[in-house]
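Reply to dn_fold:

You asked what the input looked like. This is it:
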Amino acid sequence: MSTRLVRIDAIRREAIDIVSFELADAQDQSLPRFTPGSHIDVHVGPGLLRQYSLCNGPERSGRYLIAVKKELDSRGGSRAMHEQMKVGELLTISAPRNHFSMNSMASHHLLLAAGIGVTPILCMASHLAAQGASFQLQYFTRSIEHTAFRADLSGPQFNGKVSFHHGMGPNELRDHLQSLLRIAPSGAHLYLCGPRPFMQMAGAIAALQWPSQAVHREYFSAGPASHAGSETAFQVKLARSGAILTVSPGQSIVQVLAQHGVGIDTSCSKGVCGTCLTGVLEGVPDHRDVFLGQDQKLRCDRMLPCVSRSKSEILVLDI
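and this is what came back:
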């Protein structure tokens, strides 16, 4: 995976517990272009690799903007970004990757963001506004003080396009989403990003009226539900070498492959980012990720070996 060194040129407090970082190439060279919905891997420190969405529109070249929420249960990444990073600090990042891409043929784009989920949505909204495309953004937060990028989203380019919602309880939120999503306009696409409870509620309501191929999701964590299931041993066969390896309870496919000298690019190791997506030639995966959609999982032709296992005795992988 290609990497490059970037410099932190600015740090800004965007909301309670949310700070943004403006990144520029360390040698003042141009940065790779990206599409709305993209993210980068950031090497925060030894053993700390984190994924952050690019917030700025792709039309703004030469800079990457990311935002980080300081999590109460931080495993070190968000805490380090908030407490250790300073202007002028150098960071190693990956090239942008996009697993949350927009449909360029959509007649209308409905963007729903909750909390820190606004980060890729802001990028999408900026791009759509610059293109003069049809879109609407609904942004849900605990309070005005928890609303990141409120000033940006209140700018003239977003006039009549952005609605802010603060402090909604579960019932009020459900009623609003049911009203908002009760009709799927022809050719429209829906984009969801936010905390897991919000994603589950919005996704379930959208599923009643919106075609599955028109609903796009970006998760920030896999959650405990994605790892549910039995832990029994199974085998994986590597199609290109013919090697057959045993995956024991408590081991991931990625770990077993690494033990036998077969490396797969990984990033989140939680079934969220899609970096380790691998082809399946035979067998039935036990999908435990949140990256693949339900229709994709039913095809059984791809899986995320960082968290997923097998329902069949053997899986033949396209490796």
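The chain has a mean pLDDT of 92.
Hope that clears it up.
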